[in-house]
Amino acid sequence: MQTNNYPKLHNATWPGIVGKGPGSEPAISLDKLLELTAAAEVDGVKFDGIDIGLFEPHFNIDESDDGIKKLTERVASLNLNIGSLVCAYMGRSCNGKQRRPKSICGNGS
Q1: What is the tens place of the pLDDT at every residue in 93-107?
Q2: Distance separating alpha carbons of residues 83 and 20, to the nearest angstrom
Q3: Under a CB-based contact definition with an 8 Å cutoff, are residues 26 and 16 in contact?
Q4: Cα–Cα–Cα angle for 104, 105, 108, nearest 5°?
Q5: How far is CA 102 from CA 1, 4, 50, 53, in A?
Q6: Which of 40, 53, 54 is nearest to 9 (CA)?
Q7: Other Cβ atoms closer than 10 A to 59
Q8: Closest by alpha carbon to 105, among 87, 81, 91?
Q9: Kind of pairing, strands 98-103 and 81-92?
Q10: Residue 61 near residue 55, CB atoms below 8 Å
Q11: How far apart are the C-alpha atoms of 58 and 50, rounded to whole Å?
């Protein structure tokens, strides 16, 4: 009988981007976030994987198949899994004005 080893613990990459940039602190690179995630441990508990935000500067939505393969190999080399993909989209407010990109999971303005 298999042992249930759930829930899985994943770190999200989008906090390394959101609220960062010109006039603020710089975005945290994806490589740095991966390294920090792989190294983090509390009382013997480590992250099982990451949830990747599919937006710049961490991910180019037009990335080639080879680029995507390199990303998955990099994540796997750190003994992490990719748990979910978070996409960005451009929303419009009720008055029709263009709004900034936001996560489907977020409540951006």
Answers
A1: 444 555 555 544 444
A2: 24
A3: no
A4: 75
A5: 43, 35, 19, 11
A6: 40
A7: 21
A8: 87
A9: antiparallel
A10: yes
A11: 13
Annotate 69-82 with three-state secondary structure: HHHHHHHHHCCCEE
- Helix, coil or strand: residue 66: helix
Q: Give bridge partners of residue 53 from the DSSP assignment.
A: 86
Q: CA of 98: how far to CAs of 13, 54, 57, 76, 105, in Å? A: 25, 20, 21, 38, 19
pTM score of the predicted model: 0.72
**Are 53 and 86 in contact, with CB atoms under 8 Å apart?**
yes
Residues making up the chain, counted from first to last: 109
Q: Is 34 exposed, middle or buried (0-12, 13-18, 19+ CB in 10 A)?
A: buried
Q: Which residues pair with 85 in a beta bridge?
A: 52
pLDDT, one tens digit per residue, over 26-85 is 889 999 999 999 999 999 999 999 999 888 888 888 889 999 999 999 999 999 999 988
The upper half-sphere exposure of residue 11, i.e. CA atoms within 13 Å in the direction of its Cβ, equals: 20
